[in-house]
């Protein structure tokens, strides 16, 4: 069928639905909607067999849904309605939730049900749930609904009963407010997780008003409730009544008439206000399963090393790249035969940190520093010849993050991960040795196509193309243990040392310098030119604004041809 996706943003779920529908043989057009979107004209032009709305903040007009079957993806079980479904679920501590695909009609979220799929809700942030458990259920429900529609024999069920709680109101800041003088660590973490990544929790801090983003419990540090007692990995630690929480990011409240604000590492956002706050770094090498929050950690099991990293939104600033490179060098000093990169849950990496770049005094210079730091990290992986390196991608990856994964000897990803192995949508040529690793993986013709078409790739398609070597069929919570068991078996294989020997011989013959020099020549010209589209596209992306006319490079209609 020809399917039109209507969406308010080309977010992770929209990308995954697009890629999965393509894998099932459908042609797909994507239309980003906004207040002045000519939806009626788009629908008339596309004349779709079916309209699907994976992420839509506005109602579909009656003269569209009355002519075309329009299926809306709602992140809640049958009977649940309202704009803050997942927020309420996290707030109330639900351990099971669901996704419903329903038919658009005159009443929001009240249409007939085409499919509904249940899913678990582990105690993690709302945005993490949305990209993983909710996305898994949503794709299953969409494919089921599309199949039922295509059969022409299925009759959707009216919403006259269900497990949901009916239409609930928008989950506003009055419900999210933290009372530092009475809220426990568990309560504060739950409130922070329920607001991540949007809209954040509005709070007063050190003379300013900020939206707090992300939250991790801290059980060892203490202080006066609400006090900032420590910093670590760009995050601040605030005391609660019975412990503390780590808050990785802050976003200043927008002033009336002022420019759009955006999230930054908390210590960067509070620069100059934390001089009396001590840094409390976490140990890199963990000997057990200590409950210590940090962005990077390392552990060993027999002959296998696990270098885990988790950066907010998958973005990696210059500082984060440098810290990860230092940790990687430590991991390579250890007596292991297999080293696993990643392996947690959620994002693997999305490349350079556009928010930190945007906030810098000289975005062009910071872009240059960031891309060189990414290149240094990727080069270290590519030139590791004394062990096998495995990239374990629990979640999505894009741009330089994909190329970081491809630098390893083997690439494993969870079923459901979405890869965007291109840079074009941000106006960039790209670096991270992609001109070496991508053709080596998929061939020159496919590499060129992936770069030019700039479309999301599902895990299944990535396996067929050769971008990844293994797809692990499991839930997000199980990926770390599944990948760990596979890595341990790999380390125990007699053939592993033979592969290491062959890798060293091959590595000694490859001169990587020309690839880096050619890529960086392109990137330097882009970063040094303030009129290049990259700068406008970056600003629009970071500030969540529509790109200025003449800078948009992405055509959403018929994105897969």
UniProtKB/TrEMBL annotation:
Domain Formyl transferase C-terminal: residue ranges: 176-253
Superkingdom, taxonomy of origin: Bacteria
Entry-linked Gene3D superfamilies: 2-enoyl-CoA Hydratase, Chain A, domain 1, 3.40.50.12230
Domain Formyl transferase N-terminal: start-end pairs: 35-144
SUPFAM superfamilies, per database record: ClpP/crotonase (SSF52096), FMT C-terminal domain-like (SSF50486), Formyltransferase (SSF53328)
Name of the molecule in the record: Enoyl-CoA hydratase-related protein
Organism expressing this protein natively: Streptomyces laculatispora
Organism classification: Bacteria, Bacillati, Actinomycetota, Actinomycetes, Kitasatosporales
């Amino acid at each position: 069928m020809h399917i039109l996706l209507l969406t308010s943003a080309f977010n992770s779920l929209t990308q995954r639905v697009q890629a999965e529908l393509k894998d099932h043989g459908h042609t797909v057009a994507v239309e980003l909607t906004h207040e002045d979107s000519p939806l009626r004209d788009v629908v008339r032009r596309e004349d779709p067999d079916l309209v699907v709305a994976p992420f839509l903040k506005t109602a579909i007009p009656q003269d569209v849904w009355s002519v075309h079957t329009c299926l809306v993806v709602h992140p809640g079980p049958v009977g649940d309605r309202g704009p803050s479904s997942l927020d309420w679920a996290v707030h109330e501590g639900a351990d099971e939730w669901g996704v419903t695909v329903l038919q658009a009609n005159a009443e929001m979220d009240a249409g007939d049900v085409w499919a509904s799929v249940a899913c678990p809700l582990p105690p993690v942030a709302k945005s993490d749930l949305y990209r993983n458990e909710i996305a898994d259920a949503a794709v299953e429900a969409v494919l089921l609904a599309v199949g039922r529609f295509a059969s022409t024999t299925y009759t959707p069920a009216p919403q006259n009963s269900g497990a949901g709680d009916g239409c609930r109101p928008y989950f506003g800041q009055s419900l999210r407010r933290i009372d530092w003088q009475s809220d426990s660590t568990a309560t504060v973490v739950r409130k922070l997780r329920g607001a991540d990544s949007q809209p954040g929790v509005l709070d007063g801090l050190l003379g300013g008003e900020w939206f707090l983003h992300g939250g991790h419990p801290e059980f060892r540090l203490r202080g006066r409730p609400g006090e900032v007692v420590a910093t670590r990995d760009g995050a601040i630690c605030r005391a609660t009544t019975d412990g503390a929480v780590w808050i990785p990011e802050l976003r200043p409240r927008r002033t009336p008439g002022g420019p759009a604000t955006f999230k930054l590492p908390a210590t960067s956002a509070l620069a100059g206000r934390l001089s009396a706050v001590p840094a409390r770094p976490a140990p890199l090498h963990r000997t057990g399963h200590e409950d210590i929050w940090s962005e990077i950690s390392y552990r060993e099991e027999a002959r296998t090393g696990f270098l885990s990293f988790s950066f907010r939104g998958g973005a990696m600033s210059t500082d984060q790249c440098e810290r990860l490179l230092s940790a990687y060098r430590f991991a390579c000093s250890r007596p292991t035969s297999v080293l696993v990169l990643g392996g947690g849950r959620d994002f693997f990496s999305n490349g350079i940190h556009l928010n930190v770049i945007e906030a810098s005094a000289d975005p062009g210079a910071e872009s240059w520093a960031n891309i060189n730091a990414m290149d240094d990290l990727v080069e270290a992986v590519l030139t590791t010849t004394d062990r096998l390196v495995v990239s374990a991608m629990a979640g999505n990856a894009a741009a330089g993050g994909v190329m970081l994964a491809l630098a390893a000897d083997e690439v494993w990803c969870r079923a459901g991960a979405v890869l965007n192995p291109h840079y074009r949508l941000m106006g960039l040529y790209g670096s991270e040795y992609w001109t070496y690793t991508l053709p080596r993986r998929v061939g020159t013709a496919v590499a060129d196509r992936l770069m030019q078409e700039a479309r999301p790739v599902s895990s299944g398609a990535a396996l067929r193309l050769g971008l990844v070597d293994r797809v692990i069929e499991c839930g997000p919570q199980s990926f770390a243990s599944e990948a760990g068991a596979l890595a341990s078996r790999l380390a125990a294989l007699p053939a592993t040392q033979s592969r290491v020997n062959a890798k060293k011989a091959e590595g000694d013959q490859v001169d990587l310098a020309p690839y880096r020099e050619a890529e960086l020549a392109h990137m330097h010209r882009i970063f040094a030119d303030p009129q290049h589209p990259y700068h406008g596209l970056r600003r629009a992306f970071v500030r969540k604004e529509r790109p200025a006319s003449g800078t948009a490079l992405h055509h959403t209609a018929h994105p897969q041809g």
